[in-house]
Amino acid sequence: MTEFQEKLRQQHEDSMHRELEALLGTATEPDAQISKKDFDGFKKLFHRFLQVKGPSVDWAKISRPPEDSIQPYEKIKAKGLPDDITASLNKLAVVKLNGGLGTSMGCKGPKSLISVRSENTFLDLTVQQIEHLNKSFNADVPLVLMNSFNTDEDTKKILQKYKHHQVKIHTFNQSRYPRINRESLLPIAKHMGVSGDNAEAWYPPGHGDIYASFHNSGLLDKLIAEGKEYIFVSNIDNLGATVDLFILHHLMSQPAERRCEFVMEVTDKTRADVKGGTLIQYEDHLRLLEIAQVPKAHVDEFKSVTKFKIFNTNNLWISLLAMKRLQENNTMDLEIIVNPKTLDGGLNVIQLETAVGAAIKSFKNAMGVNVPRSRFLPVKTSSDLLLVMSNLYSLDAGSLTMSKRREFPTTPHVKLGSSFTKVQDFLTRFENIPDMLELDHLTVSGDVTFGKNVSLKGTVIIIANHGDRIDIPAGAMLENKIVSGNLRILDH
Description:
This protein is of the alpha/beta class. The protein folds into two domains: 51-375, Spore Coat Polysaccharide Biosynthesis Protein SpsA, Chain A (Alpha-Beta Complex); 382-484, 3 Solenoid (UDP N-Acetylglucosamine Acyltransferase, domain 1), CATH 2.160.10.10. It has 13 helices and 25 strands. It has an eight-stranded mixed beta sheet, sandwiched between helices. A hairpin with a 2-residue loop joins β3 (115-117) and β4 (120-121). The mean pLDDT is 91. It is an enzyme of class 2 (transferase). Pathway: Glycan biosynthesis; glycogen biosynthesis. Belongs to the UDPGP type 1 family. Pfam families: UDPGP. It catalyses: alpha-D-glucose 1-phosphate + UTP + H(+) = UDP-alpha-D-glucose + diphosphate.
């Protein structure tokens, strides 16, 4: 049987290589060179995909990470800062993952160009943060954007407007990999183009691709030559991911032989985070465990807040020299995430992806830092958008911080129904954003609109049944209320 399987594997691989060569034949220069590098990476991934069967972890071998491998943020902060933090900042570059589109929020184009606060987009806020850092400390921290073929063109057009800001901006593209037919395991692409019926044939292969594409772009070597030692990597939609001087100082102050090559910021799990990846000890290494790798029988255990108390925020600090070493020696071992999709026409495909945090086990002296929740403020849905647009947060130099007027530091739990999914619909339903300083929980379902200067406190549940509509009147104050039925307020 195994001999038969081996032959079958070989057959799949040979067929894939033939198809990829044929596709490359349709490319034009200089795209052909780039695509060839992309396909080399894809071949490695596909080869490993054919080798691996079943879950990639043996559940019995999993144990909790040793105490000292995840440091509390307070302990790192207690070290204080040196007089000359500028020297450390000059050895840092900030990388934002900018490959995603705004489609899940009903927007066209890159997600980073959605307005989130006072007309500022995610990208605006990022540039403001880093410029503020450079001006305050007279430093030179560059911003690097990892774009995908979906976001590159639109992002580059926008970058013109930051020409006069005190921040150097570099971009590079993550790879473009072919989606494969789930039955035949062959690419569905007919040619190298990305338009028309071929548009669905490609995908950016997850943020784990940063290692190969950063290296291939030449930017890794360029930054090393400029004296940069670490990059701080985070998702561009995580508004809490600002440069933390205490973590930076901790990295820079380690003796050379104990230099930490990889820091993952983790934070305490709440019920809302049960799907987030967690850090485990596995075969003497710190390792990231994602929900996709968990055997079905253990998924509930993985989601429990008692056994796995923390999750990965995807804010990472990575040594550039270590990245170069692992990439050139081909010793970066990232677990494959198999992501099944059904295309509009009903065709079942799979895309092979990897996660940037999965590389933690390949780096020396890797550690986790348990950071405050405020460093994890992702905007994935319109419910998140409502929170960051509200008076719960104040905006200062591109950074959002919880308002001092809120008495307790937890974020309210907000669930907006499907009428609010698209940003455009969401904005038309609020005349202005309600006062939410004293809110604990908000659920809104159905056709609901909010007048000016509404105030929400405690637990508020508003449900308009099918065919009904509720207009919350201007100036209303709802505290621990359930609102249902039908209430129309019309101009006379």
